[in-house]
């Protein structure tokens, strides 16, 4: 309180505007006046104007599929904007009132996390939260479903409970929706959404349909972006996903039976026989992105497309990069696979090198690359583990995870599930306090 009395508001604003978001998050709890100031549009706009040149933020490559290894396999921290001294994985937990038997992160978007836990007594709990601000809200189960019903649904291959989308205004999360998806049959034109809204605190059911029947065995593989879920689907007898389905949960139709979009992947007829990996999607620089490696005339070529339209047409995708790796990745051999694109810099792709047992950061524009290994990741070697955006990279079970999925991938090139799928937890450019339930 003494500090507050000695600092006029103008001086306080100038001081706060110079510190990292990590410290600003702590200052929100000093007193009500500081919290109101920091949460104001004026202060946020001022801070953004002063930090406009600071584009890098903390982010992580997450493993949400295999519970045998770490949740966060690669972390990026130490950026100027957030100033975190440790990676995001250390914040990714919520301690409920009872002992937990099982806990897993289902989804991450715009700094908000969907967490699932089971207590030793068998109680099922879903929470949405901002881990850095230690804000959590428990999501009730749909009123028409018992805990036993939810367990039965979780065992259904054509059900997914990991959907999470946000509504953003001026770079701040003002609302979120938890989305469960269910297909009544493996091959169907229709899906049922169960949607929980932070604005109402209620669940509602909604049926959606598309123009053709699709196989829905990949509902759990999706990426959220700008309030829209994009997930994978297959048509006909394809063992690989050949469509991206999408639905906008904040601009959809209010009718009971609404339509969603299906977009074919690019180059299916031209490249299908030459692609090395099953099709998956990620996000980068505000776009949904598809990247793959292709066998071309005895060499390897990386192609990257970004989704520019949700129309059912091949031109919905725009080819961003085409790079022959024979000269670009000299010395790394042929045994590598794509992991993710950089969330903000669409020039940078992350590849795992089996030959070098390390993560390769390749700039598709300049052809420059760097190799980062787990065994060299330590506090004493921060300079050697800086990424291309200046963040410090840390690893936790990354090599172990890559070794686990690679044999499965090799054995299932022509069939089976998607195994080369990675999630990203990216901090926003602002604090994003958890939206409160509307009264």
TrEMBL record:
Query: Which parts of the sequence belong to the F-box domain?
Result: 8-50
Residue ranges spanning the membrane: these are none
Taxonomically, the superkingdom here is: Eukaryota
What SMART domains does the record point to? FBOX
Gene3D superfamilies cross-referenced by the UniProt entry: 1.20.1280.50
The protein depicted here goes by the name F-box protein At3g23950
To which species is this protein native? Camelina sativa (False flax)
């Amino acid at each position: 309180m003494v500090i507050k009395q000695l600092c006029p508001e103008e001086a306080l604003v100038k001081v706060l505007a110079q510190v990292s978001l990590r410290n600003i998050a702590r200052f929100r709890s000093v007193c009500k006046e500081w919290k109101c100031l920091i949460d104001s549009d004026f202060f946020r706009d001022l801070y953004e104007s002063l930090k406009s040149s600071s584009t890098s933020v903390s982010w992580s490559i997450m493993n949400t599929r295999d519970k045998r290894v770490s949740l966060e396999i690669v972390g990026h921290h130490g950026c100027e904007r957030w100033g975190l001294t440790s990676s995001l994985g250390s914040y990714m937990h919520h301690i409920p009132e009872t002992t937990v038997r099982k806990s897993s992160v289902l989804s991450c978007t715009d700094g908000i996390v969907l967490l699932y836990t089971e207590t030793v007594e068998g109680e099922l709990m879903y929470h949405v939260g901002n881990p850095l601000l230690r804000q959590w809200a428990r999501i009730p189960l749909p009123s028409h479903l018992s805990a036993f019903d939810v367990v039965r649904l979780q065992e259904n291959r054509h059900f997914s409970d990991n959907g999470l989308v946000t509504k953003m205004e001026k770079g701040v999360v003002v609302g979120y929706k938890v989305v469960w998806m269910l297909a009544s049959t493996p091959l169907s034109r229709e899906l049922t959404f169960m949607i929980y809204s932070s604005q109402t605190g209620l669940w509602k059911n909604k049926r959606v349909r598309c123009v053709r029947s699709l196989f829905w065995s990949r509902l759990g593989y999706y990426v959220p972006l700008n309030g829209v879920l994009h997930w994978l689907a297959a048509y006909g007898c394809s063992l690989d996903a050949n469509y991206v389905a999408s639905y906008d949960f904040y601009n959809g139709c209010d009718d009971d039976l609404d339509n969603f979009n299906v977009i074919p992947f690019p180059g299916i007829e031209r490249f299908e026989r030459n692609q090395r990996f099953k099709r998956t999607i990620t996000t980068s620089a505000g776009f949904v992105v598809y990247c793959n490696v292709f066998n071309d005339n005895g060499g390897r070529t990386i192609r990257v497309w970004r989704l520019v339209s949700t129309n059912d047409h091949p031109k919905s995708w725009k080819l961003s990069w085409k790079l022959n790796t024979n000269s670009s990745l000299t010395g790394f051999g042929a045994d590598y696979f794509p992991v993710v694109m950089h969330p903000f810099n669409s020039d940078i792709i992350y590849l795992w090198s089996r030959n070098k047992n390390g993560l390769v950061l390749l700039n598709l524009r300049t052809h420059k690359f760097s190799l980062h290994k787990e065994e060299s990741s330590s506090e004493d070697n921060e300079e050697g583990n800086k990424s291309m955006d200046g963040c410090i990279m840390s690893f936790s079970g990354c090599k172990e995870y890559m070794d686990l999925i690679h044999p499965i991938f090799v054995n299932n090139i022509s069939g089976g599930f998607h195994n080369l799928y990675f999630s990203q937890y990216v901090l926003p450019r602002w604090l994003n306090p958890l939206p409160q339930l509307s009264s």
